[in-house]
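To: structure subgroup
Subject: Chain for Friday's discussion

All,

I'm putting the inputs and outputs inline so they're searchable in the archive.
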Amino acid sequence: MLNRGDTAPDFAATDCQGRPFQLSDFRGQRKVVLFFFPRAFTPACTLEIRAFRDNQALIESKGAVLVGISVDNHARQCEFAKSEHIDFRLIGDETRAISEKYGVVWPVLRVDRRATFLIGEDGRVEDVLHHEVQVYRHLDDVLERLGAAP
């Protein structure tokens, strides 16, 4: 898994709203909150997605872009985005190409670890949050790092 200070690997994908996304487009402009989760439609992942969804405006008000990725295929990821009314970028990584770059794929299960990378405007990883079972810790930690915690 990437560490604090590492350069975040660039990648390009299309999100569930058909918008192209390239990480390097945000260099010099905005921070990126890039979170990986195991599977769409699972109970813990649904809780995590809803927490990020409900705080999207606050995260964006602090100058960050929110992006979620799992190893689900594009169609399933988009069904999940639609069912949960997700407006932020949600990306399916069925080939695991993005997930492998970030070192978040569990070796045996071949699903993503629950990990969040706070990427600075310079393209470097400012922080890595890794809480497999403490689903709400990701959002809490992101808000704290962005200076948005209550």
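Points worth raising on Friday:
Strands lie at 12-14, 20-22, 31-36, 64-70, 89-92, 115-119, 125-130.
The chain is about 30% helix and 25% strand.

D.
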